[in-house]
Amino acid sequence: MKGYGSMYTSDAEAVKAITKNVSAKTKKLLEQGDLKGALLEIAKTVENKKMKTIARGLAANIGTTSVSFDTDAGIKGRMPPQYASENTITHGVFFHGSNAIVLNKNVPTSIHLVMHEATHATVDISYHRNKNSVPAK
Questions:
Q1: Predicted structure pTM score
Q2: Tens digits of residue pLDDT in 60-94
Q3: pLDDT of residue 1
Q4: Is there a contact between 36 and 59 (Cβ–Cβ < 8 Å)?
């Protein structure tokens, strides 16, 4: 099967490419709050064609989503208590209400983490652009 294959299987090369940590330049862009720039840098540096395409798409649709870093405790302090488990470390969260991504400054920042949280943000943005979409109703 061509393309992305079954939605229930993973592309091992794509997975391998995004498990790497972001580059120093990407990390600096994130620390400066430049999420779009960080996603474009990921698109340049990630070693997988599919992930390059996805990162560019995320950058094109990320809008005004902010990005910042905080500690695990700081992130959990912003979360509803039922989601803030003390038995796990939170690597990152997208906060819908404030349109903000917060990444844990005490864990490595992987390409996967940034793209994962950016996906939450862009899906949220797409719902708000189309108030007639089923999820928005």
A1: 0.89
A2: 999 999 999 999 999 999 999 898 888 899 999 99
A3: 42
A4: yes
Long-range contacts of 105-110 (CB under 8 A, 24+ apart): 105/69, 105/70, 105/71, 106/71, 106/72, 107/72, 108/21, 109/21, 109/22, 109/26, 109/27, 109/30, 110/18, 110/19, 110/20, 110/21, 110/22
Those residues of the chain that have pLDDT short of 50 are 1-2
